[in-house]
Amino acid sequence: MKLTDIKNGNLSAEWAEKGYELPKFDVEAVKAKTHAEPTWVHFGAGNIFRAFPAAILNDALNSGKYDRGVIVAESFDYEIIDKAYQPYDNLSLLVCLKSTGDIEKKVIASVTESLKADYSFGADWARLVEIFQAPSLQMISFTITEKGYGVAPADLERGLTPVLAMGKVTALLYERFKAGALPLTVQSMDNCSHNGDKVKAAVFAYASKWVEQGLVPAEFLAYVKDETKITFPWSMIDKITPRPDAKVQQMLADDGFEDNYTIVTEKHTFTAPFVNAEETQYLCIEDHYTNGRPPLELGGVLYCDRETVDKIEKMKVCTCLNPLHTAMSIYGCMLGYTLISAEMADEDLRAFIQKIGYIEAMPVVVDPGVLNPYEFIGAVINRRLPNPFMPDAPQRIATDTSQKLAIRFGETIKAYEERGLDKSNLVLIPLVLAGYARYLKGIDDNGQPFEISADPMLAELQAIVAPLKVEAGEQDFSCLKALYSRTDVFGVDLYAVGLGEKIESMAKELFAGPGAVRATLHKYTLAR
Prior knowledge:
Elements: H1 4-8, H2 14-17, E1 20-21, H3 27-36, E2 40-43, H4 47-51, H5 53-62, E3 70-74, H6 79-85, E4 92-97, E5 103-108, E6 111-116, H7 122-132, E7 139-142, H8 153-156, H9 165-178, E8 184-188, H10 195-212, H11 218-225, E9 230-231, E10 235-238, H12 246-255, E11 263-264, E12 270-271, E13 274-278, E14 282-286, E15 302-304, H13 306-320, H14 322-334, H15 340-343, H16 347-361, H17 373-384, H18 394-397, H19 405-419, H20 428-439, H21 458-465, H22 480-484, H23 487-490, H24 500-510, H25 516-527
Parallel strand pairs: 1-5, 2-3, 2-7, 3-6, 4-13, 7-8, 8-9, 14-15
Antiparallel strand pairs: 4-5, 10-14, 11-12
Helix pairs in contact: 9-10, 10-11, 14-16, 14-20, 16-25, 20-24
Domain Mannitol dehydrogenase N-terminal: 41-272
Domain Mannitol dehydrogenase C-terminal: 309-495
Protein name: Mannitol dehydrogenase family protein
């Protein structure tokens, strides 16, 4: 069983017997239609693209209500195209990893072309220019990570042949401008706040510089700024797509599926002919298009206005997901866990995050209306975090914790203040923050040192708690005031809002020698 069997028509009954879902549409017809009248180009050929946007379009095509695929362009790691796309005729296998331990296997055939987005690949670049000149093109989108939207001064000086992704995209937008100032939507699908604004700022920077240099007419800058022509909608995306997993590879091998190996590029991208991903996913997009759009709602996309996208993001980041992750990462590291899924089997930790979400965060949750916050948290706790296939670790999530606390907990505390809610009801959120001081010591609950995750403020914050020891007996905890009054870390002065003393008292318990973390966690979680 190989992906190329689909193109060659060598499909045995074994595919169905082994539970593989095959395309329900005419792959070659969709490919021909897309080549002639392209509607969507996506930049970023990584795992998240194939597991989510491409899979959504695959569902839309399977419905029989749409007839165009997506063209993928890679602007950074060209080996992905050479090794993970073209040898398989752009087909891939999506392996959905369910919290029950079951897996679903679906062949994704919605990607009709794969191109290298760089001038050095002459034929590919010429094809991208041709696509951008097509009146049928409705949307370009991105999963290139937040750093992919960067603009470097040196790149701005390269004129119309920049090397960074946003420069190349702006050069292609100039081709669309020259073809008649045709309309287009520029859609980020990356997991970063107000992502559309990041694309817009980068495009404006290149276009402005080129006008200044006399390389393009002022009308081009006006074109990209004209919202009747070019739009940059916001979106919120949420899905985990880990590296190819050895357990999944073995399951596929046992099926007789031969394209089950991992590909590692020279740029250290981990990819494969298959993608393993969690079952839970959300993609909410601001519905602000100038030339129509693919009907991705057929695959589950939620279209809404900008305010609703913002509310969904706040619900996820400030109350219903990210704070739970951070609470688990701090305590998971101290309790010796290396897997989030294993933490969910710990009764204290499971109750800890449940009560943070349902009891303490829910009173100030931003309800977006289109996603129920209770159902969202339920999916997090019951399906996402316990998923045995997800090799996510508290150590990874604990990276840059100092940069996350203000958003993930400070915003909730400020919301309690603004709404006049009783802050004495906050018990477990203070326990998270008390645990942070204990975490900074880098000593686990057995009294053994552990490696603290990378953090730009680590040395500075560790210096504050340096006088403290993890041991029973009296010691001076006055140094904690210098920590918990830091608005740059927590978003608020925790003493000024009446929580500093409570957090300090909890910290004293957490520092009381080996076993204190477990005992304190159990005590406050049980009481809550």
